[in-house]
Amino acid sequence: MIGSAATYVFLFISLFFEVFLLVVFLERRITRVEAQSAPVRTSELPTVCIVVPCFNEARTLEATVHSLLALHYPGEKLEIAIIDDGSTDDTLKIARRFESDARVKVFSKENGGKHTAMNLALAHTQAELIGCLDADSVVAPDALMQVVPIFNNPKIAAVTPGIHVREQKNILQRMQHVEYRLSIFNRFMLAAIGSVFITPGPFSFFRASVVRELGAWRYAHSTEDMEMALRIQLAGHLIANQPQAVVHTNTPSTLRGLFRQRVRWTYGWLRNAVDYRFMLGNKRFGNLGLIVLPTAIISVGAGIFFFLRILWNLGDTISHAILRYESGAGFPHVSFNAFYLPTSALWFLVWASIAMILALICAGSLIGTGKRLPPASTPLFLLFYSFLVPLWLIAAVFRATFKTGVRWR
Is 71 helix (H, G, I), strand (E, B) or coil? Predict the structure, then answer.
């Protein structure tokens, strides 16, 4: 009885949040106040520093820097700070190759984490805007020019981009490709309702003055991007999103790599949620405090609950089948008849939630690429990815509860 009630509650909350975002999206009709701001003249463009924090990124760094050097932006107003954070491979050697370009500065330091790399760059620049690009990502040539005009709004302290999967070599990466399309929609809509709670490493930008006022970057359980986003909004600033600022990032190609990455993300989110728990349910923080943060917490519990309930039901079904076989009745005959498809209220909520997720993926494709159809691998995502997510949710909750920490790699 309790399990059934919890199932209905979690499904209702999930469906309500999905419908809420979709309705807001349809009301906006993909128009954004930020994107309607007047174009910035070249002479009025702000100075920009793009930081590339590196730790053992010899394999991908060269392509990352080449993409930054190809940006359509005045060279005299662009700095590229490559920060070698104590790498043990050829990262520093590769970074030094670019020092002949006046836009590039290379720094080397002992390993201290991404926040120390960002702060080192902040201390050595006078640029008005400071951004970050992970060393496994590449950007489109016009990406920076898509971001900069949004800072015409003085209330905006940060802008996030549209992130896409760089390469899709196997089924796992194809499923992540669909997930990233869904994330494009979520990030776009959370910005629309003033509730972004992460400024991702690939090509997020900040007003340098605001970052300094807030005390620069901090260690935040290996997810400094989340902590900074919460701190920015705690101070009353806004975070915008520009999906036309396209960046392609590498994604894990193995289950082990994906599991480790997502445990780190979820662990960091949970620990930061504890640090900023006073924002949860606080109307002072609007949609972020009243809707988004509580829903994000509930979604972690819901994912684990549904996974365990499915395992329980599966085990119960198998045990009944075994008992039936041992009693001499044999295994039940399996046949398909459309008349007996589940049509209860519970299944209606399940099908509605799946349909809504599909609609949001389509909306993410429209926002990010202008195409209305979802990626071809969407069925794989819907069928299998949801069974992977609870695995890292359970691991992250365990680690967050016992404060065991996580490894970056």
Answer: coil
For 17, residues 6+ apart whose C-beta sits below 8 A from its C-beta are: 291, 295
Task: Report mean pLDDT in 10-residue bins for the chain, 409 residues.
Answer: 80 89 80 50 90 97 98 97 97 98 97 96 98 97 97 97 95 97 96 94 97 96 94 96 97 96 95 96 95 94 92 84 74 54 70 92 95 94 92 96 79
Chain centroid to CA 73: 26
Q: Could you count the other beta carbons within 10 Å of the beta carbon of residue 257?
A: 13
Hey, what are 18's tokens? 């999905």
Residue 10's pLDDT is: 87
**52 with 64: CB under 8 angstroms?**
yes
Question: What pTM does this model have?
Answer: 0.91
Confirm if 199 and 229 have CB atoms less than 8 A apart. yes
Buried b (16+ CB within 10 A) or exposed e, 200-230: bbbbbbbbbebbeebeebeebbbbbbbbbbb
Cβ atoms of 182 and 357 closer than 8 Å: yes
Question: Looking at residue 340, what is its pLDDT?
Answer: 47
pLDDT of residue 198: 94
The torsion defined by the Cα of 14, 164, 24 and 298, in degrees rounded to 10, comes to 20
Q: Do 177 and 368 contact (CB within 8 A), yes or no?
A: no
Q: What is the pLDDT of residue 333?
A: 62
Q: The dihedral of CA 26, 28, 34, 36: what is its sign?
A: positive
The DSSP code sequence of 180-249 is HHHHHHHHHHHHHTT------STTEEEEHHHHHHTTS----TT-HHHHHHHHHHHTT-EEEEEEEEEEEE
Q: What is the DSSP secondary structure assignment for residue 155, as one 8-state letter?
A: T
Strand partners of residue 109: 85
**Residue the block writes with tokens 């990815």:** 385
Q: Are 38 and 153 in contact (CB under 8 A)?
A: no
| CA distance to 255, 264, 296, per residue, from 258 (Å) | 5, 10, 20
Q: What is the pLDDT of residue 339?
A: 46
The CA distance from 340 to 320, in Å, is 20
What pLDDT sits at residue 403?
87
214 residue type, one letter: L
Say how many C-beta atoms besides its own lie within 10 A of residue 269's C-beta: 21
Other Cβ atoms less than 10 A from the Cβ of 277: the count is 12
Pairing relation of β-strands 156-165 and 238-249? parallel
